[in-house]
């Protein structure tokens, strides 16, 4: 990662881009579009509603689910030099960003009428019209797998020798995670420099008629500025990941309605791929593709044998589907850019070496991630008495995938662990659940799917813990913390989650032959829950406690932050 000074000079070669919104289409040259329409394609689906890739004012938290923008960039080797930046200035930047967060609920219809007109004004103020017009993004939309698919595709293209940019949401611990250059989070120095340029320019030229952009709008504008200056540009290829029920307060109550929104970014002349979908969803996609004259190609899961015994960098059987889509996206980009001659294939029936390297080295925190707890470990970290299994699943479909992964990862019957999988141990084990979800989610959809899938795989939870997210206190600033005094904390949502869990049929017995449906706890804060887990593990070192953390990427990020800080 290069650090420091001024913006790099412009370079002639173009390179790919990809975003996590949907798009299906065949290989041909993209038609020119008016700039505002082009901006809509980059930031939204097709209706006037706020869309995942588009900044809007209705998301209550900084980490709300948002798709990914993958932007492999022009090949160049530019060195930077500049002054090191202290954390105090970064905290000031985070404070400014936090001031843009609105508390409107997601489905609030306020201020939508002039959303795109406002966004167009912001783009003009920042003089980004030409840069955005040159962005030919690869859209990747869907209900689940957007971030994983973009991560795989970015890693493949980087392994092919291209400089890459990746824009994803939400972040887990630091807002800079949303902006990755060459596989690394943007440096603090660069982030601060680009932030102040956008912030001061907008502050100087906005007012009553044109207010400062809200949080997500600002981040999207910042991404455009970063990637245009860093020469992240490219032709188009699009993908739609698995579709299901999520963000229903915005996208609709039926799978057909949700799919129509996801298909809104289909464009003529753009090659597109999707994965096998439910019949209702596929019929909507095909209809929209036909209307646009687009040939929609269906991609199937990657055959593990094509990896030459290398594991995927992201774990879980569902990742083979995401990997298959990522391969199609990366291969199409390379083909359209005339770079297929870069690929090296050792054996027929296997993937090119660069693809294998990219897929096996891909990394995305909070998705199928396993972390032994350092405070309760023996001398060998691999024999920890307390192990956290992190997965940010937050839809009913992803809950099922999460449960299968957890059952597989904790199974000691001859499973050989991958790079981040928990090694086997002869000790007895206990499965705990640490759960929270946002209030816009339906726990009646999430928890039964999780419990049933675990039971089908022979896995039962000894204890379920429900906690509020830590991030509701610290927002963006790393120096912020939960209330120091014993203030009144609203745990009504966590108590309702506990009730839903308690009403589910639990057929297994827990410790001391007590029915496990009664083994639940609600904690006032996440640190208290982690403290209790550590103390429990410390007192029972002959047992390995395997804790599944799921239901919310915010929760997963909070746990990662606490474990990283060893608190």
Summed up, what is this model?
The chain is of the alpha/beta class and 567 residues long. It contains 18 helices and 15 strands.
Please describe what this structure looks like:
- This is Folylpolyglutamate synthase.
- GO terms for molecular function: ATP binding; metal ion binding; tetrahydrofolylpolyglutamate synthase activity.
- Its cofactor is a monovalent cation.
- This protein is of the alpha/beta class.
- The protein folds into two domains: 116-361, UDP-N-acetylmuramoyl-L-alanine:D-glutamate ligase; 369-414 and 427-477 and 490-505 and 517-565, Mur ligase, C-terminal domain (Protein-Tyrosine Phosphatase, Chain A, Alpha-Beta Complex), CATH 3.90.190.20.
- The protein is built from 18 helices and 15 strands.
- It has helices at 35-43, 87-98, 115-125, 129-134, 146-159, 188-205, 215-229, 248-251, 255-262, 279-292, 319-336, 353-361, 396-409, 443-456, 471-474, 492-503, 526-539, 553-564; strands at residues 18-19, 66-73, 140-141, 163-169, 179-181, 184-185, 238-240, 272-274, 296-298, 369-372, 386-390, 428-435, 463-466, 520-522, 543-550.
- The strands form three sheets. The chain has a six-stranded mixed beta sheet with strand order 10-11-15-12-13-14, with helices on both faces. The protein has a five-stranded antiparallel beta sheet with strand order 1-2-4-5-6, with helices on both faces.
- α5 packs across α12 (353-361) and α13 (396-409) packs parallel to α14 (443-456).
- 48% of the residues are buried.
- Residues 1-35, 44-68, 72-86, 377-381, 413-424 and 509-517 have low confidence and may be disordered.
